[in-house]
Specification:
Blueprint (H helix, E strand, L loop, with lengths): L9 H12 L5 H20 L10 H14 L4 H20 L18 H4 L6 H14 L4 H12 L3 H5 L6 E2 L4 E4 L17 E4 L2 H14 L22 H11 L2 H5 L28 H14 L4 H8 L3 H8 L4 H9 L6
Antiparallel strand pairs: 1-2, 2-3
Helix pairs in contact: 1-2, 2-4, 6-7, 7-9, 7-12
């Protein structure tokens, strides 16, 4: 241990980092950093690292190998994981927890445009997931959440921030409101506020969820959350876990494409569902929904408004149509073609 460093446990350092950055980063970004650093802290605990003073470049390498090989992180996800770790270690150096310059030993993987948008929930798979939920978890929290995420393309943070009063079942739409002072902000602030239309089928599920299974709780701000557990508003972490849980192929097909033993798979427990190579987080659901809208000939400006992202971002990060598909769709709007 270097003499000038002061002992600090990984979990305590993580909380100090998040507290420091909370004043400058959006809530959604803080949640992402929390999720990524939680993986790092858990690895440290499993590896017996209880003091960051001892953390070295070799430990960075071992963590990277573990996340890449054992957890099978995609290149884009690995880049995000390591970028957050690099900022975290840079902060730790300022409070004398690690050697200065340790963050510079983290080399971020190079990603291509395809890496950035390769994961998505395609329509066929989405229907399999929803069919399973309709049959076995009808109008329960999981069913209502996944129905809304798929049919609207909402970010998970926007979805969990909805209140019952934000749902208009008569006119079939959701009202997205930016309420940072009450813990439910939208990614782009008030610019993200909008009305989102719903279909008959989604409204039917929401109506049954509210009338039969909703726990009727209020949050700490005396608001009635649309998506709630028995004790509080659905958290971002629990929302992510639900999506991971029900996008595992073994859940809706009763078989494993990775030839794993279904009784002994390490991704079998709900809290480990993210370890399944085929499970998806909420963002690929959003990406799949956006691509599905575009392939269904919904104009890009309409999709852009509905999904709260610019057309440039839509094209670069979400649109997975081939150039030939785009050509065929454009021809439908051009006379004489």
């Amino acid at each position: 241990m270097t003499d000038h460093l002061e002992p600090l446990a990984p979990a305590e350092a993580m909380q100090m980092y998040l507290d420091e950055r909370s004043h400058e980063l959006a809530d959604a970004t803080i949640q992402s950093h929390r999720y990524r650093l939680k993986q790092f802290v858990q690895w440290c605990e499993q590896d017996g690292i209880d003091n960051l003073n001892d953390f070295s470049g070799r430990d960075i390498h071992r963590f990277r190998v573990k996340r890449r090989n054992e957890d099978e992180l995609a290149t884009a996800s690995m880049k995000g994981q390591l970028a957050t770790l690099r900022m975290f270690l840079r902060f730790c150096a300022t409070i004398d927890a690690v050697e200065p310059g340790l963050d510079e030993k983290i080399i971020l993987p190079t990603t291509t445009e395809d890496d950035a948008r390769s994961e998505l929930l395609n329509p066929d798979r989405a229907q399999q997931v929803l069919k399973f939920l309709d049959q076995y978890r009808y109008a329960r929290l999981e069913h209502a959440l996944v129905e809304v995420l798929w049919h609207t393309g909402l970010r998970i943070g926007a979805a969990i921030g909805l209140d019952i009063e934000d749902y208009n079942n008569d006119e079939q739409y959701l009202t997205l409101a930016h309420r940072p002072e009450e813990g439910t902000s939208l990614k782009n602030g008030r610019k993200s506020e909008r009305l989102v239309a719903l279909s008959d089928s989604v409204c039917e599920v929401l109506d049954d969820w509210l009338s039969v299974n909703h726990p009727g709780v209020v949050d700490q701000h005396d608001r009635e959350p649309l998506f709630a557990t028995k004790i509080d508003r659905l958290s971002r972490t629990r929302g992510r876990t639900i999506v991971y849980q029900y996008t595992r192929p073994c859940v809706y097909t009763d078989s494993c494409p990775h030839e794993r033993d279904l009784d002994n798979c390490d991704a079998l427990p709900t809290e480990r569902s993210h370890a399944c190579p085929s499970s998806l987080s909420p963002h690929p659901v959003r990406r799949g929904a956006i691509t599905h809208f575009l392939k269904s000939n919904v104009p890009e400006n309409v999709v852009s408004d509905r999904m709260d992202c610019s057309e440039a971002v839509l094209d670069r990060h979400y649109d997975q149509r081939s150039e030939r598909e785009k050509l065929r769709q454009r021809r439908r709007y051009l006379p004489g073609n």
